[in-house]
Amino acid sequence: MTEHAVDNRPVVLKVDHVAKCFRLPTEQATGLKMAFLNWTKGIKGYTEQHVLKDISFEVRQGDFFGIVGRNGSGKSTLLKIISQIYVPEKGSVTVRGKLVPFIELGVGFNPELTGRENVYLNGALLGFTREEIDAMYDDIVEFAELEDFMDQKLKNYSSGMQVRLAFSVAIKAQGDILVLDEVLAVGDEAFQRKCDNFFAQMKKDPTKTIILVTHSMDAVKRYCDKAILIKDGEIVVSGNKDDVADQYTLENLKVQEAEQKARAAANADSEGRVYPAGLSARVPVLDVRAADSQLVKTREPFRFHVDYEFNEDVEFYLTLTLLDMKRGGIIYDTAADLRQKKRGRQTVTFKLPLDAICNGDYRLTAQLRSLPDPSNIKSNQQLAYTDESRSCDFALRIPGNDGWGLLNKSSMKVKQLD
């Protein structure tokens, strides 16, 4: 479908100016007199937390629609309103077709009943008749791979078995709209692959609609056609899934950086230290910070600054380490080849080539080391390092540069030998 083509598919979910708030108790009156005094003082006894503010969007039949946002953004509350668990203060939700919610693992399951009984109980809670559940039962059990355990009580199931059964009931239920909240990480690796295949099949069915809430931006880019990003109860990005995923990544980087710096400051205060972890009177400043956007979408080298302060009359150098935060491990270390000449408070700018590595989440750390004997590298001493609050995180999101491993195809080519 072209950008300006008319989409004639029916709207199966319409969220129209929805708002939701919760009342949080602050001061409880212990009697009628106290209640009257509170009323005369204008004390309500509660505060209002506005979780959702004027949310509007549409989902059409056949969409694989993503809803993303950090914890506390309001996305789970939105799903519960869509699933008619909560009622909004303002606005309305219109659903066309049968909606099957899967909000939390195990909701509607009774540990004292058998797996078979729980399938029928959960199906009834979802609004299916016994005849409809009969028709779905074999598919549910086969997908969950629990054929030999269905007559055992659920309390005897492992947590993984319970997850597989609950998820299987949700996705095998013959609904028109499937609402899934944080389910891509359920089960073992083999079951996750089965779920991946299920989603791939669902994407090909124009009559089925899936609404997915997830923290996995890989899942958003792989499965979703459209998405929205919710922040502080409002939609900040809507439509293009890649824009939504990239903005979410950027928001995460900003929040993580702020949290790290706040945590470092709090630790310093509580422990009475003059200098944060990794610093001292000899090196009171050492910090790595981005010169370019922390969300990298091109192969241009990534530029960053290192701030340091050092005044001693001894040779010294910086080391830089690149860490892979997603796959784990040290990617690159500069060793002792970044010797510095300028003393005092200084800022050094570097650029990091990105040609060899796949998309991922990375961290740059720095150390400042002295070299008392310039002819002997083994004489070096660590003077300072950057903790996580003073390191630089960035995300690589270059189109066509995805891969399970670290090195991309252009830098690592395997040749077959005849």
TrEMBL record:
Family: Belongs to the ABC transporter superfamily.
Molecular function, one GO term: ATP hydrolysis activity
Keyword Lipid metabolism found: no
PROSITE patterns, sorted: ABC_TRANSPORTER_1 (PS00211), ABC_TRANSPORTER_2 (PS50893)
Boundaries of every ABC transporter domain copy: 34-257
Keywords, alphabetical: ATP-binding, Nucleotide-binding, Transport
Highest taxon, organism lineage: Bacteria
Alphabetized InterPro entries for the sequence: AAA+_ATPase, ABC_transporter-like_ATP-bd, ABC_transporter-like_CS, ABC_transpr_TagH-like, Bact_Polysacc_Export_ATP-bd, P-loop_NTPase
Pfam short name (any one): ABC_tran
Protein name: Sugar ABC transporter
GO CC annotation, single: membrane
